[in-house]
């Protein structure tokens, strides 16, 4: 099972502001959806693992993220996430995904604390980073990419008229 982080961050590694994304980038959302839905085996699906704040920040009409196993990490033992699995540790979230025979890949989708834990504890296949040009005065940040991950390639550039961004892939050395 391959494991990835997928994240959009500005030039100061900002990923969120007041509990929300600081930008609305249609092509980035499409990229996120395409990457987290795509499987080699069409009988399988991917898992998305996120913190409870990320889950809550997803508009209710889009929860759970369709056609993916949604796993929500929470420290609160009473936390409920309708139509999603709830885990209370990073290890437990991975065990839930690994126990399922229909899961091909795992994507960690945020937030900042989850990204930090994952980079410190999980050996990832790679990191999909949408680099958003500019400084969006964020209050949540993506950690520095550890040196064991090297830039592999650009998967394309976009410009929504106001904001330029690029899809980058980092691979474990």
In short:
The protein has 173 residues and is α/β, with parallel strands linked by helices. It has 2 domains: 9-39 and 112-167 and 169-173, Dihydrofolate Reductase, subunit A (3-Layer(aba) Sandwich); 42-103, Dihydrofolate Reductase, subunit A, CATH 3.40.430.
Could you explain the architecture of this structure?
With 173 residues, this protein is an alpha/beta fold. It folds into two domains: 9-39 and 112-167 and 169-173, Dihydrofolate Reductase, subunit A, CATH 3.40.430; 42-103, Dihydrofolate Reductase, subunit A. 22% of the residues lie in helices and 36% in strands. The protein contains four helices and ten strands; from the N terminus they run ββαβαββαβαββββ. Strands 5-4-3-6-1-7-10-9 form an eight-stranded mixed β-sheet, sandwiched between helices. The radius of gyration is 15 Å and the shape is globular.
Task: Please tally the β strands and state the result.
Answer: 10
- Based on secondary structure, the structural category is alpha/beta
Taken in chain order, the helices and strands follow as: EEHEHEEHEHEEEE
The CATH class of the largest domain is identified as: Alpha Beta
Which descriptors would you attach to this protein?
173 residues; two-stranded antiparallel sheet; eight-stranded mixed beta sheet; 4 helices; 36% strand; Dihydrofolate Reductase, subunit A; 10 strands; single chain; 2 domains; alpha/beta
Question: How would you summarize the topology of this molecule?
Answer:
Layout (H helix, E strand, L loop, with lengths): L1 E9 L3 E3 L9 H12 L7 E7 H6 L11 E5 L11 E3 L2 H10 L3 E6 L3 H10 L4 E7 L7 E2 L7 E11 L4 E9 L1
Parallel strand pairs: 1-6, 1-7, 3-4, 3-6, 4-5
Antiparallel strand pairs: 2-8, 7-10, 9-10
């Amino acid at each position: 099972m391959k494991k990835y982080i997928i994240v959009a961050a500005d030039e100061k590694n900002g990923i969120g502001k007041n509990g929300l994304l600081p930008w609305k980038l249609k092509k980035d959302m499409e990229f996120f959806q395409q990457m987290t839905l795509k499987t080699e085996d069409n009988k399988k699906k991917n898992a998305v693992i996120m913190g409870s704040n990320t889950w809550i920040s997803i508009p209710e009409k889009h929860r759970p993220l369709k056609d993916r196993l949604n796993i929500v990490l929470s420290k609160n033992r009473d936390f409920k996430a309708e139509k999603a699995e709830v885990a209370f540790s990073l290890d437990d979230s991975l065990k839930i995904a690994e126990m399922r025979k229909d899961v091909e890949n795992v994507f960690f989708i945020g937030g900042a604390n989850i990204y930090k834990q994952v980079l410190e504890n999980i050996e990832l296949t790679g990191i999909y980073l949408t680099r958003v040009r500019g400084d969006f005065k964020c209050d949540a940040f993506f950690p520095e990419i550890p040196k064991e991950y090297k830039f592999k390639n650009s998967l394309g550039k976009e410009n929504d008229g106001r904001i330029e961004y690029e899809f980058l892939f980092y691979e474990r050395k």
